[in-house]
Design brief:
With 294 residues, the chain is mainly alpha-helical. The protein is built from eleven helices and five strands, in the order βαβαβββααααααααα.
């Protein structure tokens, strides 16, 4: 299976011809045909992205997402293939790789990593001990030298983990979910960004704009002057940034209000569920603070 951005018309381009010679086929165009393929980049009028499959693979469904319904300036593509057909045999559990702190393209991050890494190595005199071991090791290592080598290797690995954990702060999950106050500002930013792009001639889904406008209760956003769009987007971003530091308190108030509404409507089980969720989140935040204070 190949998911590809060809930077040319996939219906008759050189890349399409080459992939077909290799025995691959376009899953989406097989389902919908060449003539109905829409543009997949917001500044071109032809499809330049596609999904190719070998003939052994069968798919359930495939298609295109609307412009703006995903990250980037390309239209999102999707395909649904059965696990048994794609992988065959027993399905093994995939262990997700955790995000690493070190990003080599970020100078500030690499400087912090090197500083923490060197501090840990110097703390255990790893460099001096490595140089000393290198001078006395000529042939097969003795038992003492093997033990020393293993210790230095363990110090090196632990120093790397220590520096990797502290060189960059990962901020995932730091903003509490409160749709009536916080996420609505994020949706407004997204809406005005899409409207500005559409105003300047980019391919943007009108249905997506209408759906977002309905969610944030803004009528006919495309009829507003583009300068006002930019102003409204800036205001939404400013409000979003102001709400972020207090997102946990805002979420707690939102959950409290939601639980109270359920109790008033006689939905005691749902009210108890929301109340229990509040207690669990409060307990989790307390444990985080204790862990950071150590």
């Amino acid at each position: 299976m190949v998911l590809i951005d060809c930077n040319e018309d996939v219906r008759n381009g050189k890349m399409d011809q080459m992939l077909r010679k290799q025995g691959l086929r376009s899953a989406i165009r097989q389902k919908f045909g060449d003539m109905s393929a829409p543009p997949t980049h917001h500044r071109v009028s032809v499809p330049i992205d596609d999904i190719y499959l070998s003939h052994e693979l069968t798919f359930i469904r495939a298609g295109y997402l609307a412009f703006g319904d995903g990250p980037g300036d390309h239209r999102g593509l999707f395909i649904d293939i059965g696990k048994q057909n794609l992988l065959g045999g027993d399905i093994h559990t995939i262990h997700r790789q955790q995000a690493r702190g070190l990003v080599s393209s970020d100078k500030k991050c690499t400087d912090r990593f090197n500083r923490f890494f060197e501090h840990q190595l110097n703390r255990n005199h790893v460099i001096e001990r490595m140089n000393k071991l290198n001078k006395i090791c000529h042939n097969e290592l003795t038992d003492y030298q093997l033990v020393e080598y293993e210790k230095l290797d363990r110090f090196y690995v632990e120093a790397f983990k220590y520096a990797d954990k502290r060189c960059r702060k990962l901020k995932a999950g730091q903003i509490g979910f409160a749709p009536e106050e916080i996420q609505i500002q994020a949706r407004k930013m997204h809406l005005w960004s899409l409207c500005i792009r559409k105003h300047y001639g980019c391919n943007v889904s009108s249905k997506l704009i209408k759906r977002l406008a309905k969610q944030v209760k803004i009528k006919r956003p495309m009829q507003i002057d583009v300068d006002l769009m930019v102003q409204y987007r800036s205001e939404a971003k400013s409000q979003y940034e102001n709400l972020k530091p207090n997102s946990k308190e805002i979420r707690d108030r939102w959950l409290e209000k939601k639980a109270l509404n359920y109790y008033n409507d006689g939905e005691n089980k749902l009210g108890d569920l929301i109340s229990r969720m509040r207690r669990i989140e409060d307990l989790r935040d307390s444990h985080k603070k204790i862990k950071l204070a150590r």
